[in-house]
Amino acid sequence: MTADAKDRVFEIIKLEEKRQSEGLELIPSENYVSANVLKAMGSVLTNKYSEGYPGKRYYGGNENIDQIESLAIDRAKQLFNADHANVQPHSGANANEAVYYAWCQPGDTILAMSLPAGGHLTHGSPVTRSAKVYNFVGYGVTEDGDIDYDELEKLAHEHQPQVILVGYSAFMKIPDFDRVAAVAKDVAEESGHEVLLMADMAHVAGLIAGGAHPNPLDHGFQVMTTTTHKTLRGPRGGLILSKGVVGNPLKKVEHTLENIPTLIDRAVFPGTQGGPLEHVIAAKAVAFEEDLQPEFHDYARMIVENANVLAEELKRLGFVLQGDGTENHLILVNVKQSFGIDGKFYEAALDKVGLTLNANALPSDAGGAFRPSGVRLGTPAMTTRGLGQQEMMRVAEWMKRVVEICIEASDEEALDGYESELEAIREEVRKLALDFPVPGIKPQDR
Ligand code: DSN
Predict the structure, then answer these.
(1) DSSP labels, 213-234
(2) CB 150 within 8 A of CB 120
(3) Helices 63-80 and 278-291 meet at what angle, rounded to 10?
């Protein structure tokens, strides 16, 4: 070990490796990357400035970087049947911001699912910068958890938005992209302006790449944004796919839907970002190549199968699920309605047994964001580790045993009195988790 490797930071990384190895990750937006993705991220590419795009950089010495970014672009296009890919967004939030900036003027209207209904912060939550710049109008969900298409249509005609956005972070149905595309077409005819159809597929991009979910770009949408670290199993980052004509990003182009790929390139750099993170782009390229392999289709299918088994078993054990189940990998449980406990309390109790998920508000939740009635969970990370249907049944059983402890304890502080019961479940979780190693963590390192 070198002197540097004795830095306290590396000791803490070891602790995190242990936490990840000995617990089970149920947070639906998290996953594990391969050793090769880790290797590319930890490379000397981080030393390089490369503002601009392949072949059009503002610094010298980019001949290798250009090849890497071009590979990432080509692989992303292939994965999503896109005409263009911008692989530079540092995150999903940056990707969304760049698309708004590419297409909208300040004050323009964007119709998106509201946050309480299951949308995302960057889709117009008042606390964000973009909500101050653009006029967001929010549509909701129906009783059964699906998009309220009638409301979406009504609001679209009323507000004649420049963008209609389909995407979400707590939603378990498959959107009807064709229906939304038809609404955009009608609004464009009525208003005389083109309407950009944008899909934020951060949660399901890996399912799309693996053929287990429809691709909005095949259903009339011009733009799809995503993060690369969720179901795509890449590094933490963002990605924008688009349909249209790819022009020179250094030259201005006319504001038309056809030119959206170039408008987006210009909006990412220099519009909203500076130097790209080429070590992360290299890791994206490595992940995309993994996602292009036939095995990735099996992975995508198994995520959905595992989610269905888990959802059905939870229901059998008395858990009430939003939408009564899931069509993707995401499960939203109403723990308040099911057992009278709130999501934060339940999240804290599950943490103690090594099952990690997040408390989540439900549509029209009286508990708000701080004491929500629900928890959100999903199967992408567990499926990466190789857990299957048998293990999903055990996860559901542990979740129910923790519910019973919560009911008895009645609040978070009182959980201290249930240490031995919680530790017994913790030990069972640890034993199972260690049988399914985390990719990228060598057993001797944990
Ligand atoms: N934080 C992510 C999620 O968990 O859904 C989205 O940004």
Answers:
(1) S--GGGTT-SEEEEESSSTT--
(2) no
(3) 40
Specify the residue for token string 């199993």: 233
Angle at 424 between CA 18 and CA 14, to 5 degrees: 5
Residues with CB under 6 A from ligand 1: 29, 92, 120, 169
Q: Ligand 1, closest atom to CA 92?
A: 7
Rounded CA separation 318/339 (Å): 8
**Which residues have CB under 8 Å from 274's CB, separation 6+?**
51
Q: Which atom of ligand 1 is nearest to the CA of 169?
A: 5
Q: How far is the CA of 320 from the centre of ligand 1 (A)?
A: 22
Can you tell me the distance from the alpha carbon of 72 to that of 288, in angstroms, rounded to the nearest whole number?
7
| The predicted structure's pLDDT at residue 1 | 47
User: Which of 201, 230, 232 to probe ligand 1 with, by most ligand atoms within 8 A of CB?
Assistant: 230
pTM of the model as a whole:
0.96
Give the residue from 31, 213, 204 showing the smallest Cα distance to 120. 204
Domain range list for the chain: 38-291, 296-445
Residue with tokens 């004509």: 245
Q: How many CB atoms lie within 10 A of CB 12?
A: 10
Note the pLDDT tens digit of each residue in 47-97: 999 999 999 999 999 999 999 999 999 999 999 999 999 999 999 999 999
**CATH number at 38-291:** 3.40.640.10
Give domain 296-445's CATH superfamily: Aspartate Aminotransferase, domain 1 (3.90.1150.10)
Residues designated as active site: 49, 51, 200, 227, 230, 236
